[in-house]
Amino acid sequence: MAERSPEEHEARRLLMQWIFGSRATEVLVTALRLNIPETLGDSGADVADLARSCDIPAGQLNRLMRALASLGLCTEPSPGRYALTEAGALLRAGHPDSLGDFARFHTAPVAVEPWSRLESSLRTGHTAFDEHFGMPLYEYFADKPELTATFNSAMSQESNKVAVELPGHYDFGRHGTVMDIGGGDGTLLTAILQRHPGLKGVVFESAEGAAQAAGTVKAAGLEGRCSVATGDFFRSVPSGADLLVVKSVIHNWDDERAAAILRNCREALPDHGRVLIVEVVLPETAAPDTAELNPYIKDLQMQILVSGKERTRSDFEELCGRAGLRVTDVLPLPSYTGFSIVEAVRA
């Protein structure tokens, strides 16, 4: 047999990486369940100390720790001594850019189990989550406050990268009041208001989704410039803002319901106002991507969890047209975020 070329070795490595991808995820899940990132902390720990904390024999736990090291989440600077890498430190709750709850939600059974129905979901167009759990995702959350809090925190943690970049990549200063539609805990809007002190703001969310928003606004010292309003964006959107920001909302819904949200945005918008749809904008042809989250995997996830989807520019133009809006520009945010700004005005 001829010796394999470097390209052939790389092809095998890539395929093996994805064949065993779910096993690597389970290593991460187990580490989170055992609270290992918090136990390692800033200074690291010996496996014997970790073992006592986890109530697992040191020899057995060492196997898990070495697997974590092989994934780049920790290092083993000396035998049996472990420390978090920069990536592993992102799992700690106190890290300013923490992705701990994001990891917990997206590796939990509630997010993972419906993927077993991917083929069925593709064939029928039905939402895999609904079929697996017998109800839509947001209804499932209704009587689970702890899960809802983790989900809200996960969405906030994902929003952090956009909250860092968005305020400097659009001319917010020409507007008077910005309303964040489906604004969650207010992370994105408070970042915009802090960068643009002439603006006033409103977080508009469901009562459940806005549960932490007032706290975020207060912690940012913006109580005098920012309020929280609750309601259902399928019924109406409050008037009074000349700029509406809609981030990571439209992709949650099929075209009919997405158009209904945008139609309500149009009705609330003054003639000179604008809507900013902040979402993934898929290229017209698939290619390897530099974003933190592969947009095509994310597209399938929207199908799996909530019957939504990611869209191309032409998809957004068609969708906005159905809602009485016209796309005026698409402004990419830095590539690592995976997001773009789709600007629209009343048609």
Automatic annotation (TrEMBL):
Keyword match Protease: no
UniProt xrefs under Gene3D superfamilies: 1.10.287.1350, Vaccinia Virus protein VP39, Winged helix-like DNA-binding domain superfamily/Winged helix DNA-binding domain
Protein name: Methyltransferase
Origin superkingdom: Bacteria
Keywords: Methyltransferase, S-adenosyl-L-methionine, Transferase
Record GO biological process: methylation
UniProt xrefs under CDD domains: AdoMet_MTases (cd02440)
GO molecular function: methyltransferase activity
Domain O-methyltransferase C-terminal intervals: 115-325
Cross-referenced PROSITE patterns: SAM_OMT_II
Pfam families, alphabetized: Dimerisation (PF08100), Methyltransf_2 (PF00891)
Domain O-methyltransferase dimerisation, first and last residues per copy: 16-91
SUPFAM superfamilies registered for this protein in UniProt: S-adenosyl-L-methionine-dependent methyltransferases, Winged helix' DNA-binding domain
Transmembrane segments: none
